[in-house]
Amino acid sequence: MAKRLPLTLFISVFVILGSSISSSVQIQAAGNPNYREALAKSILFFQGQRSGRLPAGAAQQITWRFNSGLSDGRLANVDLTGGYYDAGDNVKFNFPMAFTTTMLSWGALEYGKRIGPQLPETRAAIRWATDYLLKCARQTPGKLYVGVGDPNMDHKCWERPEDMDTLRTVYSVSPSNPGSDVAGETAAALAAASLVFRKVDPKYSKLLLNTAKNVMQFAIQYRGAYSDSLGSAVCPFYCSYSGYKDELLWGAAWLFRASNELYYYNFMKSLGASDSTDIFSWDNKFAGAYVLLSRRALLNNDKNFEPYKQQAEQFMCRILPNSPSSSTQYTQGKHSCFH
């Protein structure tokens, strides 16, 4: 079993519960569980995982953290400073980091107008990741950097990132060593973030979208799982257990939403149908893609997207409590999520 990235757990709260948090601030402000407080802390949590040269003043509220990982990328003669650590480790795993970025951007898009003072903090958390992902995608033609730090060595030594002396190995995928999964997820993150910044920073948004298109083309043209290319550098930590078809669908879905280019719609059709699922995670994105694409059927009444809507409904029925087809168990507090 691969371990689950704590950052993604916080973002699940952000996206799934966002509407109830923002629409019931007065009720939930002193509630139990207090989802408003959970949202605020989920955003603050990212500052504690920042790698690189930290900003001064109010932009860095976790004041016991300092600069770290300033030589990241040096072994490959590139600059890979920045990004996020893996919440307890000092490794930067781009696969789950990019998924976290996609989900954080999705939450901002869906609920940005209703989360008030948390929106600037959310944008800052997204940009800290996308600045790093842009470095990973743009520095060496034909190569996508996908991680920094030897996970096997790192897991043997618990230390502050400010003090780390473990090897900062650089990992990448290329045409000869493909990684459609990590590339597809990186493209999704950049495309989703481009929508977040479209109005507030158009130049940055355009850079994100153009880079996303290039990374997605790499994912499509050179097919293969990054686990096969990188082996023990990513397994068993973040193997792509579900394969890479879900990331191809997920990345194309976000690029279609961001660009509205028919190329991505036609590509999604070429992937064919997939089985129903009751899982949505950093590894398996089919359900997320179904929900994202069902917007076209719901908001635009586009019958071409009806199959995705049906798949999304099946997913919902599998995860909702008391549903006749539910296949999911919940911990205490479940009912608050579905009021």
Automatic annotation (TrEMBL):
<dbReference type="InterPro" id="IPR001701">
    <property type="entry name" value="Glyco_hydro_9"/>
</dbReference>
<keyword id="KW-0326">Glycosidase</keyword>
<keyword id="KW-0732">Signal</keyword>
<keyword id="KW-0136">Cellulose degradation</keyword>
<dbReference type="GO" id="GO:0030245">
    <property type="term" value="P:cellulose catabolic process"/>
</dbReference>
<dbReference type="InterPro" id="IPR012341">
    <property type="entry name" value="6hp_glycosidase-like_sf"/>
</dbReference>
<feature type="domain" description="Glycoside hydrolase family 9">
    <location>
        <begin position="35"/>
        <end position="334"/>
    </location>
</feature>
<feature type="signal peptide">
    <location>
        <begin position="1"/>
        <end position="24"/>
    </location>
</feature>
<protein>
    <recommendedName>
        <fullName>cellulase</fullName>
        <ecNumber>3.2.1.4</ecNumber>
    </recommendedName>
</protein>
<comment type="similarity">
    <text>Belongs to the glycosyl hydrolase 9 (cellulase E) family.</text>
</comment>
<keyword id="KW-0119">Carbohydrate metabolism</keyword>
<dbReference type="Pfam" id="PF00759">
    <property type="entry name" value="Glyco_hydro_9"/>
</dbReference>
<keyword id="KW-0624">Polysaccharide degradation</keyword>
<dbReference type="GO" id="GO:0008810">
    <property type="term" value="F:cellulase activity"/>
</dbReference>
<dbReference type="InterPro" id="IPR008928">
    <property type="entry name" value="6-hairpin_glycosidase_sf"/>
</dbReference>
<keyword id="KW-0378">Hydrolase</keyword>
